[in-house]
Amino acid sequence: MGKGFDGTEISNVSVGAALPHDFDAGRRVLLKGGLGAAMAAAFGGMSGCSTLLSGGAVKIGFKGIAASLSDALIVPDGYTATPFMPWGEPVGALAGMPAWKSDASNTAAEQALQMGMHHDGMHYFPIDGSKRGLLVMNHEYVDDGLLHADGMKTWSLEKVRKSQASHGISVIEIEDKNGQWHAVRPSRFARRITANTPIKVGGPAAGNAMMKTAADPSGTTVLGTFNNCAAGMTPWGTYLSGEENFRFYFAGGENITDPHMKRWGLNKGAFFRWPEHDERFDAIKNPNEINRFGWVVELDPADPNSIPVKRTALGRAAHEGAWVAITKDNRAVVYSGEDARFEYIYKFVSRDKIREAGNGLTKAQANSELLDHGTLYVARFDADGRGRWLPLVAGVGPLTAANGFASTGDVVIKARQASDALGGTKMDRPEWIAIDQARGEVYCTLTNNSQRGVDDNPGVDAANPRARNNMGHIIKWKEDNDFDALSFSWSHWVLAGDPANQRADAKGNIRGDLFACPDGLTLDDRGIMWIQTDAAAAEMGKGEFQNIGGNQMLACDLATGDIRRFLAGPANCEITGCTFTPDGRTMFVNIQHPGETPSERGDPSDPMRFSKWPDGASGGRPRSSTLVIRKVDGGVIGT
Ligand code: FEO
Ligand code: CA
Ligand code: CA
Ligand code: CA
Questions:
Q1: Which of the chain's ends, N or C, has fewer CB atoms near its CB within 10 Å?
Q2: Residue 602: its pLDDT value, please?
Q3: What residues contact 99, with CB distance under 8 A and at least 6 apart?
Q4: Would residue 282 count as lying in a domain?
Q5: Average pLDDT, the chain
Q6: Residue 250 covered by a domain
Q7: Mapping DSSP to helix (H, G, I), strand (E, B) and coil, where does residue 383 land?
Q8: What separation in Å is there between the alpha carbon of 354 and the centre of ligand 1?
Q9: Would you call 132 exposed, middle or buried from its count of C-beta atoms within 10 A (0-12, 13-18, 19+)?
Q10: How much is the pTM?
Q11: Is residue 519 in contact with ligand 1, taking CB distance under 6 Å?
Q12: pLDDT tens digits for 466-499?
């Protein structure tokens, strides 16, 4: 036995070894009953994404903290933030629990049973309310210089496989024991989805000619998901994960002339050096493989044997994530944006209504094809404060066979080209979306766009009003009547940046504590909007960023508009992932890439990696990690 990161005993079982017999009693009961009534009730009874804006005043009770550039994690007085399940900790899969080695000498096979790198979007799914649940999270990408014991000094298939195993999604079972959260290990729910896990293709792109490869001539099963950025959850208890910057994994050779590949930004070489040892990522040899990424992946965490599904009806994009609203007649509306300069915001409206559990099916199983049928729209923000949802339907308007859109599959695979043809609004990098279900309102962070109005790029427009938008903004819209409306009214909620230290043509209007580059956005059940930032390490503390500090998390009481800084992260990290237990008394947040170097390729001993978080000076190398945030008095977070 060894100690896990959180101090609990973990069996140091090697890969493929038999299950150890140290279940705790509660675990045994649940296993005996299979998913059982408790699990079904917990998953079936969730209120989904709906935000219950309780009547009366909502209040922020904490004192805002100062901006910080130090290598410290700071929260307000009266709060604790405890690192939990960092990169390398065994997830507790039945297949084995290889212990983390601080010199990063874990093998690829071991990494496939451990927490991945670069924790990102995340959601807590209750099993027993606020006491026990599944924490599901994305691992967006890796810093190969840190991932391998000798950094990038050599490069091999084993290193590619370890890099692939560090990507994807983790499902862990967690439990609050005597006021402290622990991972339940082993757990039948614990699993890793990596860049090599088989994933089904659902919806109109399944079987499309552009999805077929030599290894998958039917175009219906893809190996893996990666660059999983933000996460959403559905009212039927599943997890939605966005495949964001997939293009960085593929190499296209010297001359990329294919207009489709050019539109999707295929590069000559890959940033992640997978194609050097894995031909799947060589876009010359396997030109269709890249079309199989850029989707929203749906995972049913309650069924550890479930195969995740790429929901192609939601459109292909550099998906940040996906977030679900419910129409008055109980259909699902999924909002998503693509975090890329001058790309689009989408929504999908399901054809069918959300079904309840029954006939032996859980609610997740009853809705297993809900996101495969419906209509996809792209947003157009007009100068008069109104907007339109433009349908991406094959055969309608410019989306004809002659223009390359012979089928719905063609439209969703080429969603960018379809949106170009329809005249959607090219946005400043749409990141997270937060839905106010009760008010029919939707918020979207637009993190920044340094290239707006530069050279031949599009200039400012009403929705994206700042040239060289280094600071970012948050846009808000209200659907006409219901979430499936074809039109809406929009406004800017906040223009980020320091109003005292900005160009005259790019003034911000924050009321309260300063921030830049909004990314994460979560509306809690009390009507507090939580904002998380992702400014580049190279810019922090300089120029327009001088008074803003490092990346941080802030809270805004939507009733007053006042913004208050809640958390400052360690050096060169990004703050992301935000989810609560149902009682609101535990908040889980992710710290991504502490100690990131500008190149992300440096030697692990590079002095630029000055973050020692979370392990301290003796720990070896910085690690992305979840945080468990609580109030010392046990109260609701934010009060
Ligand atoms: Fe992965 Fe757009 O942040
Ligand atoms: Ca993000
Ligand atoms: Ca980032
Ligand atoms: Ca970002």
A1: N
A2: 67
A3: 2, 10, 12, 90
A4: no
A5: 90
A6: no
A7: coil
A8: 29
A9: buried
A10: 0.92
A11: yes
A12: 999 999 999 999 999 999 999 999 999 999 999 9
> 574 CB less than 6 Å from ligand 1?
no
**What's the alpha-carbon Rg for the chain, to the nearest Å?**
23
DSSP state of 291: G
Amino acid occupying residue 282 = D
Does any domain span residue 279?
no
Domain tally, the chain: 1
In the chain the first and final C-alpha atoms are separated, in Å, by 40
Query: For ligand 1, is residue 243 a contact (CB within 6 Å)?
Result: no
What's the pLDDT at 597? 78
Nearest to 165 by CA among 187, 182, 148: 148
Q: According to the model, what pLDDT value does residue 58 have?
A: 53
CA–CA distance, 239 with 226 (Å, rounded to integer): 15
The CA 271 to ligand 3 mean position distance, Å, reads 15
Identify the CA nearest to 580 among candidates 636, 633, 532, 521. Answer: 636
343 lines ligand 1 (CB under 6 A): no
In three-state secondary structure terms, 163 is helix
Residue span of the structural domain in which 64 resides: 2-244+294-631
* CATH number where 140 lies: 2.120.10.30
Ligand 1 pocket, residue 30 CB under 6 Å: no
- Tens of pLDDT, residues 291-305: 999 999 999 999 999
List pLDDT tens digits, range 504-522. Answer: 777 899 999 999 999 999 9
Query: How far, in Å, from the CA of 592 to the mean position of ligand 3?
Result: 8
Q: Which neighbouring-strand residues pair with 484?
A: none
pLDDT at 619: 72
Q: Are 379 and 424 in contact (CB under 8 A)?
A: yes
Sheet containing strand 563-568, strands side by side: 518-523, 528-533, 552-557, 563-568
State in Å: Cα 25 to ligand 2 middle.
Answer: 39
Q: In the chain, which stretches have pLDDT less than 50?
A: 1-2, 7, 10-56
Structural domain contains residue 346: yes
DSSP 180-214: EEEE-SS-TT-EEE-TTSEEEEESTTTT-GGG--S
Determine the pLDDT at residue 504. Answer: 79
